[in-house]
Specification:
2 copies of one chain form a homodimer.
Chain A (H helix, E strand, L loop, with lengths): L10 H12 L6 E5 L12 E2 L9 E2 L3 E4 L1 H4 L8 E9 L13 E5 L11 E4 L3 E4 L4 E4 L9 E2 L10 E3 L7 H9 L4 E5 L3 E7 L3 E2 L10 E2 L2 H11 L3 E8 L3 H14 L2 E5 L10 H8 L1 E5 L3 E2 L5 E5 L2 E6 L3 H20 L9 E6 L3 E2 L4 E11 L2 E6 L8 H5 L2 E5 L5 E2 L4 E6 L8 E5 L3 H12 L5 E5 L2 H9 L5 E4 L2 E2 L4 E2 L1 H6 L5 E15 L22 E2 L4 H17 L3 H7 L6 E2 L2 H9 L5 E5 H7 L2 E15 L6 H11 L1 H10 L3 E3 L6 E4 L1
Parallel strand pairs in A: 5-6, 13-16, 13-17, 14-15, 17-21, 19-24, 22-25, 29-30, 29-31, 35-36
Antiparallel strand pairs in A: 1-12, 2-11, 3-10, 4-6, 4-7, 5-9, 8-9, 18-20, 20-21, 22-28, 23-27, 24-25, 24-26, 26-28, 31-38, 32-33, 34-37, 34-38, 34-39, 34-40
Chain lengths: 657, 657
Amino acid sequence: MRKIFRKLVELEEALDLLKSLAHHVKLDVIEVPLEQALNMVLAEDVVCMVDLPPFDRATMDGYAVRYEDIEGASEESPRPLKIIGSIEAGEWPRREVEKGTAMEISTGAPLPYGADTVVPVELSHRDEAKNLVYITKALRRGAYIQYSGSDLARGELLLPKGILLGPREIASLALAGVRKVKVYRRPVVAVITIGSELKEPGERLELGQIYDGNTYGIISSLKEWGAEPLFMGLIPDDELILEDLLREAISRADVVLTSGGTSAGAGDVTYRVVERLGKLYIHGINVKPGKPTLIGEIGGKTIIGLPGYPMSCLVMLHLLVRPFIDWIRGVKSPPSEVSVEAKLATRLHLDGRRSFIPVMLSIDKGLYLAYPLRTESAAFSSLLHADGFIDIPAGTILVKEGSMVKVKLIAPLRVHDLVFIGSHDIVVMEITRRLRDLAVLSVREIFMGSMTGLHAISCRACDVAGVHMLDPNTMEYNTPILKRLKVKNVLVIRGFIREQGLLVRKGNPKGIRGVEDLLRGDVRFVNRNKGSGTRALLDYFLNKLAEREGLSFQEVVRRIRGYEHEVRTHSAIALMIIRGMADTGLAIKPIADIYGLDFIPLAEEMYDFLVLKDRLDKPSVRAFLDMLRDKEFQREIISRYRGIKFLPETGEVVYEA
Amino acid sequence: MRKIFRKLVELEEALDLLKSLAHHVKLDVIEVPLEQALNMVLAEDVVCMVDLPPFDRATMDGYAVRYEDIEGASEESPRPLKIIGSIEAGEWPRREVEKGTAMEISTGAPLPYGADTVVPVELSHRDEAKNLVYITKALRRGAYIQYSGSDLARGELLLPKGILLGPREIASLALAGVRKVKVYRRPVVAVITIGSELKEPGERLELGQIYDGNTYGIISSLKEWGAEPLFMGLIPDDELILEDLLREAISRADVVLTSGGTSAGAGDVTYRVVERLGKLYIHGINVKPGKPTLIGEIGGKTIIGLPGYPMSCLVMLHLLVRPFIDWIRGVKSPPSEVSVEAKLATRLHLDGRRSFIPVMLSIDKGLYLAYPLRTESAAFSSLLHADGFIDIPAGTILVKEGSMVKVKLIAPLRVHDLVFIGSHDIVVMEITRRLRDLAVLSVREIFMGSMTGLHAISCRACDVAGVHMLDPNTMEYNTPILKRLKVKNVLVIRGFIREQGLLVRKGNPKGIRGVEDLLRGDVRFVNRNKGSGTRALLDYFLNKLAEREGLSFQEVVRRIRGYEHEVRTHSAIALMIIRGMADTGLAIKPIADIYGLDFIPLAEEMYDFLVLKDRLDKPSVRAFLDMLRDKEFQREIISRYRGIKFLPETGEVVYEA
């Protein structure tokens, strides 16, 4: 019933195909003045029509002299020369420099006939009364002269066809007297975004919808790469609508890009339409992410169908579309991909397919460190934090930590003063905001949960991790888990206490007061996943409840409607309640505030910070901890947010792992 | 009489000053839609207002099931489930998945209540008749589900103030539903170009004038770096004109850049005007090139005065203006400088000042090789071929060849298929043009003379060198010099013969027929520099003439008017004649054609190619030599250009060094 990719091609085959399809695009040649030529591609060889420099010129301020007159000159035996005038840049000499004379000369001024050497002013004394200059050093003949045509000569190739014009090239063209250049017009690339679930940003999301990010990522990438994007619209997975839009696109653009609508799912429409209207060359590339990519041709125009997942879409944009645009534009030697060598922060397990793993870069001990981000292509946050990706060849199932890898950059490389990874928290956000605004530090904060924070700090990929990990055996926070996992060289810095409790709808319509109400039968509960600290806390309360009621834990659990319905985040608990799919669930207090829910406090949890022992003195880490300890800061936080408590030992090292 | 720089400051002091001056610029905050936000700087923290994803969603096409129903499933014991419908992306589930049932689900579709796992379609068989699906594998609970808020949660910081918005950031903003962002408007940077000798490109050069390249280099760099250039004009070294223009510039722009007018020469005007109208903070920076740079302030607006030499101007643009623009724009973590590690191709002698040496990059044995270009700041061609520069600390007087150096890029890195360095020649240009157009190779050709070519090939910085070096002892070309200099691992490939002779004005008004006419007394000669092959050839003829006439060589030379007037290039000879400053000089035939002069043949010279032994099989080198040997090509050249002869051994190895 559904098409499963059966014939995947290798990435190189796809690139070869695109290289040949690029020849079908013929871009007009237009003439533009230099000031409009930035990032355009030269459409003709430009030959130098003048000599550079056009005359012999002085390269220093000083005196134009005859070499024979200064031979043997020194401080002790200076050579006097009669000053016969002066020449400035832009003037033309009207006198000759004869034996025994010198002409004052400015940098850039033409050398007068007869002179063959320029003596810088620093190597002379002047006697104004006698109108003499004393030369105090013998230079070589020809010193401080730039000879006409020595730099570039008339008839030399200045720039070849196919060069991308940057500031360096534009300045060179101007120096050679070129005012207008013939360049190729930018290729027009139509962009069609497909997905029934997609909504334009800024509009209200209906249930089941998500925002469209690809259109904006594609359009801005195309602009950066010198193409002219033509956005055709955001359409549902509908073959007829797509067919109409594709027909229009091929009539208006040189190339068509689509995103979405390319998976083998029920909603896969692009390949059927391309097959019907033209030729489908490639449907599926043997890479991860990016497998559901298609390449076809309609009416002589190339169609590239990009995957719908944002990270997959971005990777394929870089792997396929970027070189394709260069080929179309006729760029003869496109700028090399920018990549950096980095140490892999953590081992990578792979499924043997050629893979592009998004990584975040930081600096550790003077080397770049590449920390792999979640590889599920559906994840948005890896898009936000990925600095580049590692190309892992097919057949690889393991890359060891510490391996040197090449990271292809997808954004300009930035080195941050402080990298925070850990559990989402409002106090952290308040600290980092102050570090940015007051201490003018650049801070990267990634909220991916306590376990990711612990993992990142143990492989040195962040400076500070924020964690609240409850050990279900001891019912203690943070330190026991570090001990159990045998983490080394990490300090636990005491953070603060956050309240945990039951979220309920505003006004608490079901009258819930505690965990005992979960057994009532009319309360729909939504649970957190096993392994989360919140789940451990709930089970601890249910155990105590079971004891009190004289029931087994299993019996208690069986009575709770929705105990088996697990979600992964505090926010998901809140959303289930807002949408009326559950009545209550366990979460932290600030979530109640953010989502406008009521809160029934049950317990307190300890949110601590982990810092690498050898980075405790890093200025940005010190600034972070200083702010955490600052009493003024603490007072402000307490007055602003409910459910947060600082402790006397907040900011102090409470454990050394 | 002239100001000599007495108090030079270090580069770091200049940067510190600019950092503090940057705070004086206050840029308005404007709101723009995402599609206009590329390369703008965010003026506020953007906090995520939705959860990403906003609901639990399937990440594969397949079936939404309850985990308990598929526990233990395998190919041998598949679990049948009743299909209760299907859900596509963009829809919202209207039914629950109850025990024993499954709902068909598309990638991106919301998970129906009751289901806790998604089984990909590949792990199922379907029985349409019975409306059953058989699940053939037990996955983990929660497989192929992306939980709501698991990626980014409401209230999390999406992007901090001060971030530069690239495609990655713009896509992320869109995904989070953001349609408009507050950004800083671009800073307006006034550009004033000073120099009495400067002419706008495209206009006719008068004697003593050169074209203005800086304006175009500065304006396009500013655009690339996110500023809005405002060109105020090209003016002579005139204090009153500059004063007027500066007053206007500070009223219209946030910052003012000047170029030229900053040296300590007679024409130095900028510092005096800045001192008069405002404050002159820095006049002279202790770096090379770039010393004559000034920093001042007029009416609260920062003025940066850049040097007039194009290479100096470009280096200071990168060192000072680029970070300054980032600071003004409020970029919190500016992209790191892009630099590459490279092996220095040849030793560098320095004068102990902090220096920035422009280099050309190529690849040798898998490493980048940095070849220093002429360091005179007046050279234009180093601007054209410089890929970046090396920062040499003060106090260094020698950097050994083979040292690893860090090259800061000033243009996107390009790797060329073929690098040619050597003497300017029309046959070379015809070959490289064909390699570009027909073989689609990227070729870099640098005409800097035979000796530079020989030097470059001996330090492996080019693939092919083109040389015509006459040995005055043997009167033989090329091979003797290689032997004498003990060059190793280089092959001499026979090239072709070019005619040498006397250039004279069209129609030969002085009736010159040979070297003997140089003794006539009414002929003004212009000579080439000692050490050039052409000079050696002339002296050879004059020796023979002296013999014939029974004179000493000195006697002959004394009789030639202008024998002591030396220029460095073939072109300079032609220009002296065109401008009426000389009647004749020795040069190659094609120069006569290019400048429209008449030509009196005297001798033939051998133009050969040098190739590294281990690169003879490099495809681009082979293509070059194949073209040289091609008979069709040779016929075309001979019919098109006069004074060129190919030989039977053209393209063959004639010597191995």
